[in-house]
Protein backbone atom coordinates (compact mmCIF):
# COMPACT_ATOMS: atom_id res chain seq x y z
CA UNK A 1 0.00 0.00 0.00
CA UNK A 2 1.66 3.21 -1.13
CA UNK A 3 1.49 6.01 1.40
CA UNK A 4 -0.38 9.09 0.27
CA UNK A 5 1.40 12.39 -0.03
CA UNK A 6 -1.85 14.27 -0.46
CA UNK A 7 -4.10 16.00 2.01
CA UNK A 8 -6.81 14.16 3.88
CA UNK A 9 -9.11 14.93 6.79
CA UNK A 10 -9.00 13.25 10.23
CA UNK A 11 -12.36 11.68 9.36
CA UNK A 12 -10.96 10.15 6.17
CA UNK A 13 -8.07 8.64 8.12
CA UNK A 14 -10.56 7.27 10.69
CA UNK A 15 -12.55 5.64 7.89
CA UNK A 16 -9.33 4.04 6.64
CA UNK A 17 -8.41 2.80 10.12
CA UNK A 18 -11.93 1.41 10.54
CA UNK A 19 -11.85 -0.34 7.18
CA UNK A 20 -8.55 -1.99 8.13
CA UNK A 21 -10.32 -3.60 11.10
CA UNK A 22 -12.56 -5.54 8.68
CA UNK A 23 -11.17 -8.89 7.57
CA UNK A 24 -12.30 -10.47 4.33
CA UNK A 25 -15.36 -12.68 4.67
CA UNK A 26 -16.45 -11.23 8.00
CA UNK A 27 -19.99 -10.35 9.05
CA UNK A 28 -19.86 -6.76 10.20
CA UNK A 29 -22.45 -4.83 12.23
CA UNK A 30 -22.02 -1.59 10.40
CA UNK A 31 -23.80 1.20 12.25
CA UNK A 32 -23.89 4.78 11.05
CA UNK A 33 -21.74 7.51 9.55
CA UNK A 34 -18.02 6.69 9.29
CA UNK A 35 -18.42 2.88 9.62
CA UNK A 36 -20.81 2.95 6.66
CA UNK A 37 -17.98 4.39 4.59
CA UNK A 38 -15.49 1.96 6.13
CA UNK A 39 -17.67 -0.96 5.05
CA UNK A 40 -17.82 0.40 1.48
CA UNK A 41 -14.05 0.98 1.48
CA UNK A 42 -13.22 -2.49 2.81
CA UNK A 43 -15.53 -4.08 0.22
CA UNK A 44 -13.74 -2.32 -2.61
CA UNK A 45 -10.21 -2.95 -1.36
CA UNK A 46 -9.07 -5.81 0.87
CA UNK A 47 -12.35 -7.41 2.02
CA UNK A 48 -14.56 -7.98 -1.06
CA UNK A 49 -16.45 -10.81 0.67
CA UNK A 50 -17.45 -9.05 3.88
CA UNK A 51 -21.17 -8.74 4.64
CA UNK A 52 -22.81 -5.75 6.34
CA UNK A 53 -25.58 -6.09 8.93
CA UNK A 54 -27.86 -3.25 10.02
CA UNK A 55 -29.88 -3.53 13.22
CA UNK A 56 -32.96 -1.93 11.64
CA UNK A 57 -33.30 -5.32 9.92
CA UNK A 58 -31.03 -5.39 6.87
CA UNK A 59 -28.20 -7.49 5.47
CA UNK A 60 -26.16 -6.28 2.48
CA UNK A 61 -23.21 -7.58 0.52
CA UNK A 62 -23.05 -4.51 -1.73
CA UNK A 63 -22.86 -1.04 -0.16
CA UNK A 64 -25.81 1.23 -0.97
CA UNK A 65 -25.49 3.10 -4.25
CA UNK A 66 -25.67 6.53 -2.62
CA UNK A 67 -24.48 8.19 0.57
CA UNK A 68 -26.63 7.30 3.55
CA UNK A 69 -27.70 9.71 6.29
CA UNK A 70 -29.35 6.86 8.21
CA UNK A 71 -29.42 3.09 7.83
CA UNK A 72 -33.13 3.37 6.97
CA UNK A 73 -32.62 5.55 3.87
CA UNK A 74 -34.37 4.04 0.85
CA UNK A 75 -31.15 3.18 -1.02
CA UNK A 76 -30.03 0.93 1.84
CA UNK A 77 -33.07 -1.31 1.40
CA UNK A 78 -32.92 -1.53 -2.42
CA UNK A 79 -30.71 -4.47 -3.32
CA UNK A 80 -30.35 -5.80 0.22
CA UNK A 81 -29.84 -9.53 0.80
CA UNK A 82 -32.43 -9.60 3.54
CA UNK A 83 -34.98 -7.11 4.88
CA UNK A 84 -36.32 -8.47 8.13
CA UNK A 85 -37.09 -7.92 11.81
CA UNK A 86 -34.59 -6.31 14.13
CA UNK A 87 -34.60 -9.24 16.54
CA UNK A 88 -33.38 -11.49 13.72
CA UNK A 89 -30.31 -9.30 13.30
CA UNK A 90 -29.69 -8.99 17.03
CA UNK A 91 -30.35 -12.72 17.33
CA UNK A 92 -27.65 -13.52 14.77
CA UNK A 93 -25.24 -11.45 16.82
CA UNK A 94 -26.34 -13.05 20.10
CA UNK A 95 -25.69 -16.44 18.49
CA UNK A 96 -22.11 -15.44 17.65
CA UNK A 97 -22.52 -14.84 13.91
CA UNK A 98 -21.10 -11.29 13.90
CA UNK A 99 -17.31 -11.02 13.92
CA UNK A 100 -17.00 -7.24 14.14
CA UNK A 101 -19.25 -4.43 15.35
CA UNK A 102 -18.75 -0.67 15.13
CA UNK A 103 -20.02 1.95 17.56
CA UNK A 104 -19.32 5.54 18.44
CA UNK A 105 -19.61 7.19 21.80
CA UNK A 106 -19.62 10.45 23.67
CA UNK A 107 -17.20 9.11 26.28
CA UNK A 108 -14.89 6.11 26.52
CA UNK A 109 -12.56 5.08 29.32
CA UNK A 110 -9.23 3.27 29.48
CA UNK A 111 -11.04 -0.09 29.73
CA UNK A 112 -13.11 0.53 26.60
CA UNK A 113 -16.40 1.10 28.46
CA UNK A 114 -18.59 3.56 26.55
CA UNK A 115 -21.13 6.13 27.60
CA UNK A 116 -23.86 7.41 25.30
CA UNK A 117 -26.49 7.82 28.03
CA UNK A 118 -25.74 10.65 30.45
CA UNK A 119 -22.97 12.80 31.84
CA UNK A 120 -22.97 13.47 35.55
CA UNK A 121 -23.14 14.24 38.26
CA UNK A 122 -26.37 12.34 38.94
CA UNK A 123 -27.65 10.15 41.73
CA UNK A 124 -27.27 6.48 40.77
CA UNK A 125 -29.29 5.27 43.73
CA UNK A 126 -31.99 7.89 43.19
CA UNK A 127 -33.08 6.98 39.68
CA UNK A 128 -30.31 8.69 37.69
CA UNK A 129 -32.25 11.95 37.68
CA UNK A 130 -31.13 15.36 36.38
CA UNK A 131 -27.84 14.61 34.66
CA UNK A 132 -25.77 17.56 33.44
CA UNK A 133 -26.14 16.29 29.88
CA UNK A 134 -28.75 13.78 28.79
CA UNK A 135 -27.40 11.91 25.75
CA UNK A 136 -29.68 9.90 23.42
CA UNK A 137 -29.02 6.46 24.96
CA UNK A 138 -27.88 3.05 23.80
CA UNK A 139 -29.77 2.41 20.59
CA UNK A 140 -28.13 -0.84 19.56
CA UNK A 141 -24.73 0.07 21.02
CA UNK A 142 -25.03 -1.93 24.26
CA UNK A 143 -26.06 -4.98 22.23
CA UNK A 144 -23.19 -4.64 19.75
CA UNK A 145 -20.68 -4.18 22.61
CA UNK A 146 -22.15 -7.18 24.44
CA UNK A 147 -22.62 -9.67 21.64
CA UNK A 148 -20.18 -9.11 18.75
CA UNK A 149 -16.91 -11.06 18.66
CA UNK A 150 -14.82 -7.89 18.36
CA UNK A 151 -15.75 -4.25 18.86
CA UNK A 152 -14.28 -1.20 17.11
CA UNK A 153 -15.00 2.19 18.67
CA UNK A 154 -14.83 5.42 16.68
CA UNK A 155 -14.79 8.85 18.29
CA UNK A 156 -13.56 12.41 18.45
CA UNK A 157 -10.40 12.60 20.59
CA UNK A 158 -10.31 15.05 23.45
CA UNK A 159 -9.59 14.94 27.15
CA UNK A 160 -13.25 15.25 28.12
CA UNK A 161 -14.17 12.24 26.01
CA UNK A 162 -11.30 9.84 26.78
CA UNK A 163 -11.65 9.51 30.53
CA UNK A 164 -10.22 7.39 33.31
CA UNK A 165 -13.75 6.25 34.06
CA UNK A 166 -17.05 7.05 32.32
CA UNK A 167 -20.04 8.31 34.29
CA UNK A 168 -22.39 5.66 32.95
CA UNK A 169 -21.57 2.39 31.22
CA UNK A 170 -23.99 2.18 28.30
CA UNK A 171 -21.90 -0.30 26.31
CA UNK A 172 -19.66 -2.63 28.29
CA UNK A 173 -16.01 -2.86 27.31
CA UNK A 174 -13.65 -4.68 29.67
CA UNK A 175 -15.32 -3.50 32.89
CA UNK A 176 -13.23 -2.44 35.87
CA UNK A 177 -10.83 -4.12 38.25
CA UNK A 178 -12.47 -4.88 41.62
CA UNK A 179 -12.16 -7.16 44.62
CA UNK A 180 -13.59 -9.91 42.42
CA UNK A 181 -10.74 -9.74 39.91
CA UNK A 182 -9.18 -7.69 37.14
CA UNK A 183 -10.79 -5.94 34.19
CA UNK A 184 -10.47 -7.62 30.80
CA UNK A 185 -11.82 -10.81 29.30
CA UNK A 186 -12.28 -12.33 32.76
CA UNK A 187 -14.47 -9.36 33.79
CA UNK A 188 -16.70 -9.99 30.77
CA UNK A 189 -16.93 -13.65 31.77
CA UNK A 190 -17.86 -12.69 35.33
CA UNK A 191 -20.53 -10.29 34.06
CA UNK A 192 -22.00 -13.06 31.89
CA UNK A 193 -21.19 -11.58 28.50
CA UNK A 194 -20.83 -14.41 26.01
CA UNK A 195 -17.75 -13.18 24.13
CA UNK A 196 -16.12 -10.12 22.64
CA UNK A 197 -14.70 -6.87 23.90
CA UNK A 198 -13.07 -3.84 22.30
CA UNK A 199 -10.37 -4.59 19.75
CA UNK A 200 -9.73 -1.05 18.57
CA UNK A 201 -10.41 2.55 19.58
CA UNK A 202 -10.05 4.80 16.55
CA UNK A 203 -9.93 8.53 17.25
CA UNK A 204 -9.15 11.74 15.42
CA UNK A 205 -5.59 11.54 16.84
CA UNK A 206 -4.69 7.90 17.32
CA UNK A 207 -5.44 4.21 17.21
CA UNK A 208 -5.59 2.18 20.43
CA UNK A 209 -5.71 -1.57 20.82
CA UNK A 210 -6.56 -3.37 24.06
CA UNK A 211 -4.85 -5.87 26.34
CA UNK A 212 -7.54 -8.48 27.04
CA UNK A 213 -5.50 -9.66 30.07
CA UNK A 214 -6.27 -6.49 32.05
CA UNK A 215 -8.61 -4.65 29.67
CA UNK A 216 -6.37 -1.59 29.29
CA UNK A 217 -6.15 0.51 26.13
CA UNK A 218 -2.70 0.66 24.56
CA UNK A 219 -1.58 3.35 22.15
CA UNK A 220 -0.98 1.39 18.97
CA UNK A 221 -0.30 4.30 16.62
CA UNK A 222 -0.56 8.08 16.50
CA UNK A 223 -1.80 9.77 13.35
CA UNK A 224 0.60 11.64 11.05
CA UNK A 225 1.00 15.20 12.30
CA UNK A 226 0.55 14.29 15.98
CA UNK A 227 2.97 13.05 18.63
CA UNK A 228 2.68 10.72 21.59
CA UNK A 229 2.89 13.80 23.82
CA UNK A 230 -0.05 15.46 22.06
CA UNK A 231 -2.10 12.28 22.35
CA UNK A 232 -1.27 12.12 26.07
CA UNK A 233 -2.32 15.74 26.51
CA UNK A 234 -5.77 14.95 25.10
CA UNK A 235 -6.23 11.64 26.95
CA UNK A 236 -7.64 11.41 30.47
CA UNK A 237 -5.48 8.47 31.56
CA UNK A 238 -1.75 7.72 31.67
CA UNK A 239 -0.98 6.28 28.23
CA UNK A 240 0.36 2.81 27.96
CA UNK A 241 2.24 2.22 24.70
CA UNK A 242 1.88 -0.96 22.67
CA UNK A 243 5.28 -2.64 22.19
CA UNK A 244 5.37 -1.72 18.51
CA UNK A 245 3.75 1.73 18.83
CA UNK A 246 4.40 3.75 15.69
CA UNK A 247 2.91 6.37 13.38
CA UNK A 248 -0.41 5.45 11.72
CA UNK A 249 -0.03 4.39 8.10
CA UNK A 250 -1.69 7.20 6.12
CA UNK A 251 -4.42 6.55 3.55
CA UNK A 252 -3.35 5.38 0.12
CA UNK A 253 -4.44 7.26 -3.00
CA UNK A 254 -6.80 4.38 -3.79
CA UNK A 255 -8.39 4.49 -0.33
CA UNK A 256 -8.95 8.23 -0.56
CA UNK A 257 -10.41 7.89 -4.02
CA UNK A 258 -12.95 5.31 -2.87
CA UNK A 259 -13.95 7.38 0.19
CA UNK A 260 -14.45 10.49 -1.95
CA UNK A 261 -16.52 8.56 -4.47
CA UNK A 262 -18.75 7.35 -1.61
CA UNK A 263 -18.98 10.77 0.09
CA UNK A 264 -18.36 13.29 -2.72
CA UNK A 265 -19.70 16.24 -0.75
CA UNK A 266 -17.88 15.33 2.44
CA UNK A 267 -21.05 15.02 4.53
CA UNK A 268 -19.36 12.67 6.99
CA UNK A 269 -15.70 13.16 6.12
CA UNK A 270 -15.12 16.91 6.01
CA UNK B 1 -66.05 -4.28 8.23
CA UNK B 2 -64.42 -1.01 7.32
CA UNK B 3 -62.21 0.51 10.00
CA UNK B 4 -61.41 3.55 7.90
CA UNK B 5 -61.53 6.76 9.87
CA UNK B 6 -59.83 10.11 10.25
CA UNK B 7 -56.64 10.62 12.24
CA UNK B 8 -58.47 12.89 14.66
CA UNK B 9 -61.08 10.20 15.33
CA UNK B 10 -58.52 7.38 15.68
CA UNK B 11 -56.50 9.34 18.23
CA UNK B 12 -59.61 10.43 20.12
CA UNK B 13 -60.82 6.86 20.43
CA UNK B 14 -57.62 4.92 21.07
CA UNK B 15 -55.12 7.27 22.70
CA UNK B 16 -56.22 8.57 26.09
CA UNK B 17 -54.41 10.53 28.77
CA UNK B 18 -52.08 8.05 30.45
CA UNK B 19 -52.01 5.58 27.54
CA UNK B 20 -48.85 3.65 26.68
CA UNK B 21 -48.20 4.19 22.99
CA UNK B 22 -45.71 2.25 20.84
CA UNK B 23 -44.56 4.23 17.81
CA UNK B 24 -41.64 4.61 15.44
CA UNK B 25 -41.08 0.87 15.42
CA UNK B 26 -39.20 0.46 12.12
CA UNK B 27 -36.41 2.66 13.51
CA UNK B 28 -35.64 5.46 11.02
CA UNK B 29 -38.31 4.76 8.34
CA UNK B 30 -42.13 4.74 8.60
CA UNK B 31 -42.37 7.02 11.64
CA UNK B 32 -46.02 8.04 12.20
CA UNK B 33 -45.43 11.78 12.49
CA UNK B 34 -48.99 12.61 11.38
CA UNK B 35 -50.34 10.62 14.33
CA UNK B 36 -47.86 12.20 16.72
CA UNK B 37 -48.84 15.68 15.63
CA UNK B 38 -52.54 14.89 16.12
CA UNK B 39 -51.74 13.62 19.64
CA UNK B 40 -50.07 16.99 20.31
CA UNK B 41 -53.05 18.93 18.91
CA UNK B 42 -55.46 16.94 21.08
CA UNK B 43 -53.27 17.78 24.09
CA UNK B 44 -52.90 14.24 25.39
CA UNK B 45 -51.06 14.13 28.70
CA UNK B 46 -49.08 11.63 30.81
CA UNK B 47 -48.38 9.28 27.92
CA UNK B 48 -45.83 6.49 28.10
CA UNK B 49 -43.89 6.30 24.84
CA UNK B 50 -42.50 2.93 23.77
CA UNK B 51 -40.08 2.49 20.87
CA UNK B 52 -36.49 1.76 19.87
CA UNK B 53 -35.24 4.82 17.95
CA UNK B 54 -37.81 7.50 17.23
CA UNK B 55 -35.71 10.03 15.35
CA UNK B 56 -37.30 13.34 16.47
CA UNK B 57 -40.90 12.21 17.00
CA UNK B 58 -40.43 11.42 20.70
CA UNK B 59 -38.50 14.68 21.11
CA UNK B 60 -41.49 16.60 19.71
CA UNK B 61 -44.03 14.84 21.95
CA UNK B 62 -41.83 15.41 25.01
CA UNK B 63 -41.38 19.08 24.14
CA UNK B 64 -45.13 19.50 23.68
CA UNK B 65 -45.74 18.24 27.22
CA UNK B 66 -47.57 15.01 26.28
CA UNK B 67 -45.19 12.59 27.96
CA UNK B 68 -44.72 11.27 31.47
CA UNK B 69 -42.51 8.28 30.77
CA UNK B 70 -40.22 7.04 27.98
CA UNK B 71 -39.39 3.36 27.50
CA UNK B 72 -36.90 3.56 24.68
CA UNK B 73 -33.38 2.72 23.55
CA UNK B 74 -32.58 6.12 22.09
CA UNK B 75 -34.15 9.56 21.86
CA UNK B 76 -32.52 12.17 19.64
CA UNK B 77 -32.06 13.24 16.04
CA UNK B 78 -30.46 10.47 13.99
CA UNK B 79 -28.61 12.60 11.44
CA UNK B 80 -28.01 15.64 13.66
CA UNK B 81 -27.35 14.34 17.17
CA UNK B 82 -28.97 15.26 20.49
CA UNK B 83 -32.68 15.87 21.04
CA UNK B 84 -33.04 19.32 22.59
CA UNK B 85 -36.52 18.78 24.08
CA UNK B 86 -35.44 15.45 25.57
CA UNK B 87 -32.45 17.19 27.12
CA UNK B 88 -34.56 20.01 28.57
CA UNK B 89 -37.00 17.53 30.10
CA UNK B 90 -34.39 15.12 31.49
CA UNK B 91 -31.92 17.75 32.69
CA UNK B 92 -34.22 20.55 33.89
CA UNK B 93 -37.76 19.15 34.02
CA UNK B 94 -38.95 21.46 31.21
CA UNK B 95 -41.84 21.53 30.35
CA UNK B 96 -42.08 18.96 33.15
CA UNK B 97 -39.99 16.06 34.49
CA UNK B 98 -40.09 12.71 32.68
CA UNK B 99 -39.28 9.20 33.79
CA UNK B 100 -36.99 7.20 31.53
CA UNK B 101 -36.91 3.44 31.56
CA UNK B 102 -33.66 2.72 29.78
CA UNK B 103 -33.49 -0.01 27.12
CA UNK B 104 -31.22 -1.16 24.32
CA UNK B 105 -32.67 -1.83 20.88
CA UNK B 106 -32.51 -5.56 21.54
CA UNK B 107 -34.16 -5.40 24.97
CA UNK B 108 -37.07 -3.22 23.78
CA UNK B 109 -37.53 -5.72 20.92
CA UNK B 110 -37.41 -8.65 23.34
CA UNK B 111 -39.89 -6.96 25.71
CA UNK B 112 -42.44 -6.63 22.90
CA UNK B 113 -41.59 -10.07 21.51
CA UNK B 114 -42.25 -11.60 24.95
CA UNK B 115 -45.66 -9.90 25.06
CA UNK B 116 -46.43 -11.06 21.52
CA UNK B 117 -45.67 -14.64 22.57
CA UNK B 118 -47.71 -14.50 25.75
CA UNK B 119 -44.49 -15.08 27.67
CA UNK B 120 -43.76 -13.19 30.92
CA UNK B 121 -40.14 -12.47 29.98
CA UNK B 122 -37.28 -13.39 27.67
CA UNK B 123 -33.75 -13.95 28.95
CA UNK B 124 -30.73 -12.45 27.18
CA UNK B 125 -27.02 -11.94 27.77
CA UNK B 126 -27.05 -8.53 26.15
CA UNK B 127 -26.35 -5.45 28.30
CA UNK B 128 -25.03 -7.54 31.21
CA UNK B 129 -22.35 -5.53 32.98
CA UNK B 130 -23.74 -2.23 31.71
CA UNK B 131 -25.58 0.37 33.80
CA UNK B 132 -28.81 -0.15 31.80
CA UNK B 133 -30.12 -2.96 34.06
CA UNK B 134 -29.24 -0.85 37.13
CA UNK B 135 -31.24 2.09 35.84
CA UNK B 136 -34.21 0.10 34.57
CA UNK B 137 -35.90 -1.40 37.64
CA UNK B 138 -38.09 -3.72 35.55
CA UNK B 139 -35.12 -5.87 34.52
CA UNK B 140 -33.97 -8.70 36.71
CA UNK B 141 -30.64 -10.44 36.76
CA UNK B 142 -30.90 -14.15 37.48
CA UNK B 143 -28.83 -17.22 36.78
CA UNK B 144 -29.63 -19.83 34.19
CA UNK B 145 -31.27 -22.90 35.73
CA UNK B 146 -29.25 -25.01 33.29
CA UNK B 147 -25.66 -23.82 33.69
CA UNK B 148 -25.76 -21.14 36.38
CA UNK B 149 -24.60 -18.38 33.99
CA UNK B 150 -25.86 -14.82 34.52
CA UNK B 151 -28.94 -13.82 32.52
CA UNK B 152 -30.86 -10.59 32.10
CA UNK B 153 -34.62 -11.20 32.24
CA UNK B 154 -36.50 -8.70 30.08
CA UNK B 155 -40.17 -8.55 31.12
CA UNK B 156 -43.00 -8.47 28.57
CA UNK B 157 -44.21 -5.02 27.60
CA UNK B 158 -47.87 -4.64 26.57
CA UNK B 159 -48.55 -1.25 24.95
CA UNK B 160 -52.12 0.02 25.08
CA UNK B 161 -51.82 0.99 21.46
CA UNK B 162 -49.30 0.60 18.63
CA UNK B 163 -49.42 3.18 15.84
CA UNK B 164 -47.82 1.79 12.70
CA UNK B 165 -47.28 3.46 9.35
CA UNK B 166 -47.57 1.11 6.36
CA UNK B 167 -47.38 1.44 2.60
CA UNK B 168 -50.85 0.05 1.92
CA UNK B 169 -53.84 -1.37 3.71
CA UNK B 170 -57.37 -2.39 2.90
CA UNK B 171 -60.28 -0.89 4.84
CA UNK B 172 -60.27 -3.78 7.32
CA UNK B 173 -56.62 -3.34 8.30
CA UNK B 174 -55.06 -6.09 6.23
CA UNK B 175 -51.83 -4.30 5.40
CA UNK B 176 -48.55 -4.63 3.54
CA UNK B 177 -45.38 -3.22 5.01
CA UNK B 178 -42.01 -3.69 3.31
CA UNK B 179 -38.41 -2.64 3.77
CA UNK B 180 -36.66 -3.24 7.08
CA UNK B 181 -39.28 -4.28 9.63
CA UNK B 182 -37.64 -3.18 12.87
CA UNK B 183 -39.98 -4.27 15.67
CA UNK B 184 -43.27 -3.47 13.89
CA UNK B 185 -44.52 -7.06 13.94
CA UNK B 186 -43.66 -7.59 17.60
CA UNK B 187 -45.40 -4.35 18.59
CA UNK B 188 -48.51 -5.02 16.48
CA UNK B 189 -48.90 -8.40 18.14
CA UNK B 190 -48.06 -7.15 21.64
CA UNK B 191 -50.39 -4.13 21.70
CA UNK B 192 -54.00 -4.19 22.82
CA UNK B 193 -55.01 -1.92 19.94
CA UNK B 194 -53.34 -1.15 16.61
CA UNK B 195 -53.86 2.03 14.59
CA UNK B 196 -52.63 1.68 11.01
CA UNK B 197 -51.70 4.75 9.01
CA UNK B 198 -51.48 3.97 5.29
CA UNK B 199 -50.05 5.75 2.29
CA UNK B 200 -52.69 4.02 0.14
CA UNK B 201 -55.97 2.24 0.70
CA UNK B 202 -56.22 -0.71 -1.68
CA UNK B 203 -58.83 -3.42 -2.34
CA UNK B 204 -58.66 -6.53 -0.15
CA UNK B 205 -57.58 -8.58 -3.20
CA UNK B 206 -54.31 -6.64 -3.45
CA UNK B 207 -53.35 -7.57 0.10
CA UNK B 208 -54.50 -11.17 -0.19
CA UNK B 209 -52.42 -11.56 -3.36
CA UNK B 210 -49.28 -11.53 -1.18
CA UNK B 211 -49.99 -12.80 2.37
CA UNK B 212 -46.28 -13.14 3.24
CA UNK B 213 -45.97 -9.36 3.17
CA UNK B 214 -48.78 -8.78 5.69
CA UNK B 215 -47.82 -7.08 8.96
CA UNK B 216 -50.25 -8.75 11.37
CA UNK B 217 -53.75 -10.23 11.38
CA UNK B 218 -56.35 -7.51 10.84
CA UNK B 219 -58.27 -8.56 13.95
CA UNK B 220 -55.58 -6.71 15.94
CA UNK B 221 -56.34 -3.51 14.05
CA UNK B 222 -58.92 -1.06 15.43
CA UNK B 223 -58.55 1.87 13.04
CA UNK B 224 -57.18 2.48 9.55
CA UNK B 225 -56.24 6.04 8.59
CA UNK B 226 -55.52 7.03 5.00
CA UNK B 227 -52.76 9.60 5.32
CA UNK B 228 -50.48 10.11 2.29
CA UNK B 229 -47.13 11.63 3.36
CA UNK B 230 -48.11 10.76 6.94
CA UNK B 231 -44.59 9.61 7.77
CA UNK B 232 -42.80 12.71 6.46
CA UNK B 233 -39.96 13.58 7.23
CA UNK B 234 -39.09 9.87 7.65
CA UNK B 235 -38.79 7.71 4.54
CA UNK B 236 -41.34 5.24 3.16
CA UNK B 237 -39.95 2.62 0.78
CA UNK B 238 -41.40 3.02 -2.70
CA UNK B 239 -42.99 6.40 -1.85
CA UNK B 240 -40.63 9.07 -0.53
CA UNK B 241 -37.12 9.63 0.81
CA UNK B 242 -36.07 10.92 4.23
CA UNK B 243 -36.16 14.73 4.34
CA UNK B 244 -32.70 15.36 5.78
CA UNK B 245 -33.13 19.16 5.55
CA UNK B 246 -36.17 19.00 7.85
CA UNK B 247 -34.13 17.24 10.53
CA UNK B 248 -31.36 19.84 10.20
CA UNK B 249 -33.84 22.70 10.49
CA UNK B 250 -35.59 21.09 13.46
CA UNK B 251 -32.25 20.64 15.21
CA UNK B 252 -31.31 24.28 14.71
CA UNK B 253 -34.68 25.80 15.53
CA UNK B 254 -35.36 23.81 18.70
CA UNK B 255 -32.11 24.61 20.53
CA UNK B 256 -34.01 27.04 22.74
CA UNK B 257 -37.40 26.56 24.38
CA UNK B 258 -38.73 29.62 22.54
CA UNK B 259 -37.43 28.27 19.25
CA UNK B 260 -39.17 24.96 19.85
CA UNK B 261 -42.44 26.66 20.71
CA UNK B 262 -42.30 28.68 17.51
CA UNK B 263 -41.50 25.56 15.53
CA UNK B 264 -44.35 23.65 17.20
CA UNK B 265 -46.79 26.45 16.53
CA UNK B 266 -45.80 26.71 12.88
CA UNK B 267 -45.61 23.00 12.01
CA UNK B 268 -48.15 21.37 14.36
CA UNK B 269 -50.54 23.64 16.24
CA UNK B 270 -51.41 25.95 13.34
CA UNK B 271 -51.70 23.01 10.92
CA UNK B 272 -55.21 21.59 11.35
CA UNK B 273 -54.59 18.28 9.55
CA UNK B 274 -52.11 16.45 7.34
CA UNK B 275 -53.64 17.84 4.14
CA UNK B 276 -52.70 21.35 5.29
CA UNK B 277 -49.25 20.08 6.24
CA UNK B 278 -48.73 18.75 2.71
CA UNK B 279 -49.77 22.08 1.26
CA UNK B 280 -47.32 23.80 3.58
CA UNK B 281 -44.48 21.51 2.44
CA UNK B 282 -45.17 22.59 -1.13
CA UNK B 283 -45.16 20.87 -4.52
CA UNK B 284 -41.45 21.36 -5.10
CA UNK B 285 -40.39 19.69 -1.86
CA UNK B 286 -42.74 16.76 -2.40
CA UNK B 287 -41.38 16.29 -5.89
CA UNK B 288 -37.79 16.30 -4.65
CA UNK B 289 -38.54 13.67 -2.01
CA UNK B 290 -40.67 11.38 -4.20
CA UNK B 291 -39.20 8.08 -5.34
CA UNK B 292 -37.87 8.44 -8.87
CA UNK B 293 -36.13 5.14 -9.57
CA UNK B 294 -38.76 2.49 -8.98
CA UNK B 295 -37.61 -1.06 -8.26
CA UNK B 296 -40.36 -3.71 -8.35
CA UNK B 297 -40.08 -7.22 -6.94
CA UNK B 298 -40.61 -10.18 -9.23
CA UNK B 299 -44.13 -11.62 -8.81
CA UNK B 300 -44.50 -14.81 -6.78
CA UNK B 301 -46.95 -17.61 -7.51
CA UNK B 302 -49.38 -18.46 -4.69
CA UNK B 303 -51.34 -20.75 -7.00
CA UNK B 304 -52.54 -24.21 -6.19
Task: Describe what this molecule looks like in 3D.
The complex is a heterodimer of chains A (270) and B (304). With 270 residues, chain A is of the alpha/beta class. Helices cover 24% and strands 22% of the residues of chain A. Chain A has helices spanning 10-20, 34-44, 74-77, 86-94, 141-147, 185-191, 228-233, 253-262; strands at residues 27-29, 51-54, 58-60, 82-83, 100-104, 107-109, 114-115, 118-119, 133-134, 150-155, 162-163, 198-203, 206-211, 216-222, 241-247. In chain A, the strands form three sheets. Chain A has a ten-stranded mixed β-sheet with strand order 4-3-2-1-5-10-12-13-14-15, sandwiched between helices. A three-stranded mixed β-sheet of chain A has the order 7-6-11, with no helix packed on it. The longest helix of chain A has 11 residues, at 10-20. Chain A is globular, with a radius of gyration of 18 Å. Chain A starts with 9 loop residues before the first helix and ends in an 8-residue tail after the last helix. By secondary structure, chain B is α/β, with parallel strands linked by helices. Chain B has one domain: Glutaconate Coenzyme A-transferase. Chain B has helices at residues 7-14, 33-41, 57-63, 84-92, 105-117, 132-135, 184-190, 204-208, 244-253, 257-269, 274-281, 283-289; strands at residues 4-5, 20-22, 47-53, 67-74, 76-77, 81-82, 99-102, 121-124, 140-143, 150-155, 161-169, 175-176, 193-201, 221-226. In chain B, the strands form three sheets. In chain B, strands 1, 2, 3, 4, 7, 11, 12, 13 and 14 form a nine-stranded mixed β-sheet that branches. The mean pLDDT of chain B is 97. The chains are: A alpha/beta (270), B alpha/beta (304). At the A-B interface, helix 4, strand 9, helix 5 and helix 6 of A face strand 4, strand 6, helix 4, strand 7 and helix 5 of B.
